[in-house]
Task: structure prediction
Amino acid sequence: MRLEKTVKELLESVERDYERRGGYLGILMGAIGGVLISQLLTGNYVIYGIISVIVYDTMSAIGGVLLGRVRLPPFSNATMEGTLVGMASLAIVLFLFTNQLISSLAVTVVAALAEAYGMEDNLAIPVTTSLIAMALRLPVIT
Result:
């Protein structure tokens, strides 16, 4: 019972106001919009967008809630701490899949910028990270 309450509070703390009011628009935007657009634009590189939104968005939200103190300037609700947690998590995952450090870091930086400054991060992260992975000719993860 106590664990359930703690998990529920954590989830509610990362949930956006519009998601509370209108349902889970962010998940819908990411699943349908971001992934579909990424697939159409980049083909199999869409996997980078999917991994990025799952790992970066989740870990940065959790890191921001648990550790976040310093807001990123300007015009962002993201925190430095959440951003760093998300970046570290995504960089590690991508490096494990690709064995390419610099390219993994480049995709990670793009994910961080898309999350912090994009209109809807669940749309921006998959599209931008898929495009940069394709531009960098990273191996297609199967």
